[in-house]
Amino acid sequence: MKWKKIIYIIATSIIIFLLLYAVTYNIDIKRAQKDKQPIFVVKVNSYEDGGSTDYLGLGYKIHIINSSYSKKIVIHALTLEGYRTVGVFLKRVAEFDPLQETN
Description:
The protein has one helix at residues 2-33, and strands at residues 42-46, 53-56, 60-66, 70-79, 82-92. By secondary structure, the protein is of the alpha+beta class. The protein has one domain. The chain has a 5-stranded antiparallel beta sheet, with helices on one face. The radius of gyration is 19 Å and the shape is elongated. The N and C termini lie far apart (80 Å).
C-alpha cells in the first residue's frame, strides 16, 4: 500500500511538471512571435546590437535577434545532449534590405 502511494505521488508530479512545461513554453513562444516579452522566463543576456536578448525558461531558451530591418526569434529546447534548436521565426521590420540594394 505504501509503494502504491509513492508511485502515485511520483507519477502525479511528473505529469504536473510536463503540463507546466507545455503551458509556459506555448505561452512564451506565442508572445515572442507577437513582439511581446515572454512571461515565464528569466532574462539572461542583453546585447548592444539593436536590442537582441536571451531568455531562459523551464527547459527552453528563447533568443530574440533584433536588427534594423528584421527580427529573428530562435527557440532552443533542452534535450539530454544539451540545447537543440527547434524553431526559427523571421519577421521583416522594414522594407529596406541592404543586401538587396543596387547601385
